[in-house]
Protein: B box-type domain-containing protein
Amino acid sequence: MRRPIFGLRNSLKCEICEEREARNTCSICGRSVCDLHFKEGICSICEMSMCELCKKNLSIGYCESCGSLICEECVAYSNGSRRICKKCAGLPPS
Structure:
């Protein structure tokens, strides 16, 4: 939720810390964030949620075998809630 900084008409607060002025927009989720929560075009929330194999997509869960955060493209096996990553299955990552 975007909140204006008191006394500044055109400035918005960071959607993560709600303290600093939001000067950047995340290219993945569109959050307005401050310089502290922005790195290489993405916000710190998306950075923490990235797939640990391909580092391109947001993760959908953890690998049941190794515990890595994995995206839909890097899942080798899934039966609903259980997922195995391509690395553990011996397949090359996407």
